[in-house]
Amino acid sequence: MMSQYGSADALRLAEHPEPKVAPGEVLVRVMAAGVNPVDWKLAEGGLDPLMEVRFPLIPGWDVAGVVERVGFDVEEFAVGDEVFGYIRKDQVQLGAYAEFVSAHVRMLARKPASLSWEQAAGLPLAGLTAYQAARRVGVTAGDTVLVHAAAGGVGSLGVQIAAALGARVIGTASERNHSFLRELGAEPVAYGPGLADRVRELAPEGVDAALDFVGGEAVGLSLALLDDPRRLASIVDPEVPSKGGRYVWVRPDSADLAFLASMADEGKLTVPVDRVLPLAEAAQAWRLSRSGHTRGKIVLRVG
Predict the structure, then answer these.
(1) In angstroms, what CA-CA distances link 117 with 15, 64, 173, 301, 303?
(2) CATH number of 130-247
(3) Domain 8-123+271-301 indexed as CATH 3.40.50.720
(4) What are the residue boundaries of the Enoyl reductase (ER) domain, all occurrences included (predicted)?
(5) C or N terminus of the chain, fewer CB within 10 Å?
């Protein structure tokens, strides 16, 4: 919990009343909560121009847990159901770094049986981001897709989703992660000077679509490799529409979550988890996330 905007050092374990459960919502007993860079960016005030944030603030938008109670007019879930979801409310205050969190049913789906609690908690925001970006640019069978930051939390899922959709995937990452990318179904290329040439060695005709999960030079490089700029999706650069591409801000969507769950249960999608820490070490989880050197997801164990 945080009493004001601040860094990881401002996080504290504290008691807070159990969340109210409005009509259309359920109360979830949290088993695990995913950690995302947006958590600490929001806590530092980075999203203040965009979002209504209330204090004391309990961070966290990714959850996996068990339905403890259902609100009025809820038929989608029952007490005891195992669920996971991306809980982004209109006002940001009561998040998933807690024993209990309330969530509207449109933000939840049934937890994939094939995934652990920690894997399920690492899937919603990153998986929805990757899937919605891929869908926005029409990734389909036969495409060659360039995925930037392919070994990260979003990128590692983007690689698998694009591959499951029938695309050939080229993924950028540091050389230490190349074996990891091959396991996920991508052809790896190293970051750094000459990246465009290395991509063209694998795809002389260029690429059909590009998913930018890192920003910086990735946008310009991708546009140089694409025939159609509309097939570039970036989750980092809000100016990309002025260059012809598409900017993607992830949305809660129960149907998309259910699709990701079905992919996982069909063996087409796994969630690489880099580190699992107890809730009391949320500050350390943020420091690890901020370092930018993790491979896959960081997750907090709660229940």
Answers:
(1) 24, 6, 27, 8, 9
(2) 3.40.50.720
(3) no
(4) 6-300
(5) C
**Considering the entire predicted model, what is its pTM?**
0.96
Q: 235 is written with which tokens? A: 């989750």
Q: What angle, 0 to 180 degrees and rounded to 10, lies between the N-to-C axes of helices 124-136 and 254-265? A: 100
User: Could you tell me if 188 and 182 are in contact, meaning their C-beta atoms sit under 8 angstroms apart?
Assistant: yes
pLDDT in tens, 1-18: 999 999 999 999 999 999
Handedness of CA 49, 51, 55, 58 (dihedral sign): negative
Tell me, rounded to whole angstroms, the distance of Cα 297 from its chain centroid: 9
The pLDDT mean for the chain works out to 96
Mean predicted confidence (pLDDT) in 61-86 = 98
Where do the domains of the chain lie?
8-123+271-301, 130-247
In angstroms, the CA 82 to CA 113 distance is: 9
* Cα 280 from Cα 216, distance rounded (Å): 34
Band of residue 294 on the pLDDT scale cut at 50, 70, 90: confident
